[in-house]
């Protein structure tokens, strides 16, 4: 491939969502030549779809809020499996990242006193989500893009060229990471979607910020780009994934009409007063408050309703339990025959708020239901049900620098694991992107500075082999397979066998199906040529999805307990022994997934001291509690 177009950077960021752009801005501001690659159009990432808001304990709506309270909520939401250092950094740094965004040009909704407004969300003790109506992600991406452009203009003034220090390559998909002979990152191989031409990006540091894996499931809020590329690229380059069994099924996706099944209905509908009812009209969430949360949630509808006006003296409505709890409850109502006509439940805001207020607070939801389902949410309830939304598991990283175990490889945002433990709280992703995106940028800059003159060189043989694999998909084979058929089969199986409720026999069955799909994938043949060819692109994505799904299934089989985004019907309880275990997956020399148990990092004493002993007793083992008691005496 001597004729391949080549680009040189100090730092290469893969992904232009919130995490990638924040990392790129950091690397460029610290003076490094930075490239950004994204699979779709610049500005079209998951981040743009985020509706509800960004969690940061600024204390504007309730002065009692601070990083300690946010840390506690995050650990509770993740059922104490979070990497505690990540949860700490996130809670401490989120407010700075939100204020900083306004210096880039963002403008959040305001309180009457002119402060950044904050709204309620599931699992957050105080109103904490800074927002712009229900279009927060759009503002986030728009502002980060604006910052990128303003930095490029600075460079143009200084050097006469916009792209001397920061360049974005849109509609470009990375297929392989490249390493030097010493095993250090040396760059990435990508193709442009329009012409199907390959390009080599040489860079000693790569930040993976490729988002999630939702497209491996049939019903999902995610869009076409999210095929687990980052997780698979990391694995194949020698890095590790952790806790891939934890997948968040958002409780409220649209269930009707079929063409839009899975599209998200923001949690803000519940945060702003919307309630869930079954076909009998009952507010069923009161029946599903688990013991660990009992003391924080209302017992009666009256108390729950009073909470919206007077949160100091009343307990929260159970509709605002963490997402895993609400999703399981809806699943159960439907299973027991109390679902809505199209297999969901009813989410009603129309009887709770005046029409003009609904339109003001939830403009996108109003529009979405009118356009897609012909439902006026100011007049009638929505039908909603669980949808695959977010992956808590991901690439194992160092909390402070976002470094993976591969020299020169960093990861931030949804593609990284650890921060959210077994379940993410709403609003904690946008803040995660900015906090750890920035840290990954700094991590990469420091790594490159430490290299001095010893820059890693791309191995041409690796490039050749990678290009040959991709082009080999056009070759004729016996019993050819179509990539779309395989993708649909994979999505069906993941939804049915490794979905919201899991059982040993079914997960085993899924692994057998994955073996078969792997075999069939070897015979995939794509039609047409390299010019904008979605079938060919999907065939390349399939390799990533199959690998990542195997990691999800293996971890789901191994963890014999139920916690957060992993529910085992055959092991329904949360087990304190399992709280101490991270499941870590890597590839062996033959490319097979290896799974190991690894201890969860210890929670520092001062962080543990933020909790009452009675609360810790719900999560920690007796031995851990005694050790803590011993420390205190
Ligand atoms: P993304 O924003 O997903 O961006 C990934 C980038 O990587 C894209 O540019 C993509 O093109 C690129 N990419 C992927 N693969 C490749 C490849 N192989 N080569 C090159 N580029 C690649 N979170 C909140 O905190 N609050 C909310 O209100 C909220 N609402 C949400 C609503 C919806 C509908 C959805 C789907 C998610 C929501 N989330 C919310 C979650 C949050 O939006 C995502 O977790 C977050 O945006 C992920 O950001 P990211 O930067 O990690 O990746």
TrEMBL record:
InterPro entries per UniProt: FAD-dep_OxRdtase_2_FAD-bd, FAD/NAD-bd_sf, Fum_R/Succ_DH_flav-like_C_sf, Fum_Rdtase/Succ_DH_flav-like_C, SdhA/FrdA/AprA, Succ_DH/fumarate_Rdtase_cat_sf
Keywords on record: FAD, Flavoprotein, Oxidoreductase
CC cofactor: FAD
GO MF term set: steroid dehydrogenase activity, acting on the CH-CH group of donors
Domain Fumarate reductase/succinate dehydrogenase flavoprotein-like C-terminal: 487-600
Signal sequence residues: none
Name of the protein this chain belongs to: Fumarate reductase/succinate dehydrogenase flavoprotein subunit
């Amino acid at each position: 491939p001597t004729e391949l177009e080549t680009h040189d950077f100090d730092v290469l960021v893969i992904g232009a969502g919130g995490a990638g752009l924040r990392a790129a801005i950091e690397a460029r501001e610290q003076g490094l030549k930075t490239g950004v690659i994204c699979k779709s159009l610049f500005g079209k990432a998951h981040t743009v779809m985020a509706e509800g808001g960004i969690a940061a304990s600024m204390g504007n709506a309730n002065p009692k809020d601070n990083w300690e309270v946010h840390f506690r909520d995050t650990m509770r939401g993740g059922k104490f499996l979070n990497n505690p250092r990540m949860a700490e950094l996130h809670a401490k740094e989120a407010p700075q990242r939100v204020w900083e965004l306004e210096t880039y040009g963002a403008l959040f909704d305001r309180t009457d006193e002119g402060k950044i407004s904050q709204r309620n969300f599931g699992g957050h003790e105080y109103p904490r989500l800074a927002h712009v109506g229900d279009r927060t992600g759009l503002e986030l991406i728009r502002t980060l893009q604006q910052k990128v452009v303003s930095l490029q203009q600075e460079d143009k003034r200084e050097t006469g060229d916009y792209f001397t220090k920061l360049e974005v390559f849109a509609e470009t998909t990375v297929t392989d990471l490249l390493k030097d002979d010493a095993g250090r990152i040396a760059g990435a191989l990508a193709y442009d979607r329009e012409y199907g031409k390959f390009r080599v990006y040489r860079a000693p540091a790569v930040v993976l910020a490729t988002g999630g894996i939702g497209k491996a499931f049939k019903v999902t809020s995610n869009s076409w780009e999210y095929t687990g590329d980052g997780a698979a690229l990391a694995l194949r380059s020698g890095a590790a994934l952790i806790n891939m069994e934890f997948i968040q099924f958002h409780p409220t996706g649209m269930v009707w009409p079929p063409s839009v099944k899975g599209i998200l209905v923001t949690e803000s509908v519940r945060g702003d007063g919307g309630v869930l009812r079954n076909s009998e009209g009952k507010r069923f969430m009161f029946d599903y408050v688990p013991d660990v949360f009992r003391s924080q949630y209302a017992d009666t509808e009256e108390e729950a309703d009073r909470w919206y006006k007077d949160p100091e003296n009343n307990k929260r409505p159970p509709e605002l339990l963490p997402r895993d709890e609400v999703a399981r409850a809806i699943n159960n109502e439907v299973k027991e025959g109390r679902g809505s006509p199209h297999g969901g439940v009813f989410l009603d805001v129309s009887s709770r708020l005046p029409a003009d207020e609904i339109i003001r607070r939830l403009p996108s939801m109003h529009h979405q239901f009118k356009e897609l389902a012909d439902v006026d949410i100011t007049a009638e309830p929505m039908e909603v049900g669980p949808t695959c939304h977010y992956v808590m598991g991901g690439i194992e990283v160092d909390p402070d620098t976002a470094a993976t175990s591969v020299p020169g490889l960093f990861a931030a945002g949804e593609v990284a694991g650890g921060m959210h433990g077994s379940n993410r709280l709403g609003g904690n992703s946008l803040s995660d992107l900015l906090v750890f995106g920035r840290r990954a940028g700094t991590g990469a800059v420091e790594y490159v500075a430490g290299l001095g003159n010893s820059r890693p060189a791309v191995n041409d043989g690796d490039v050749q082999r990678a290009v040959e694999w991709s082009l080999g998909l056009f070759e004729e084979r016996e019993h050819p397979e179509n990539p779309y058929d395989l993708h649909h089969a994979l999505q069906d199986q993941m939804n049915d066998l490794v979905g919201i409720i899991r059982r040993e026999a079914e997960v085993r069955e899924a692994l057998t199906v994955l073996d078969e799909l792997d075999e069939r994938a070897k015979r995939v043949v794509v039609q047409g040529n390299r010019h904008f060819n979605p079938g060919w692109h999907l065939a390349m994505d399939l390799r990533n999805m199959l690998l990542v799904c195997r990691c999800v299934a293996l971890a789901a089989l191994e963890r014999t307990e139920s916690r957060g985004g992993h529910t085992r019907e055959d092991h329904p309880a949360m087990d304190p022994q399992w709280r101490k275990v991270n499941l870590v997956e890597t590839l062996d020399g033959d490319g097979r997934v290896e799974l190991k148990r690894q201890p969860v990092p210890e929670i520092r004493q001062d962080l543990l001291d933020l909790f009452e002993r009675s609360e810790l007793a719900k999560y920690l083992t007796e031995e851990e509690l005694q050790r803590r008691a011993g420390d205190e005496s």
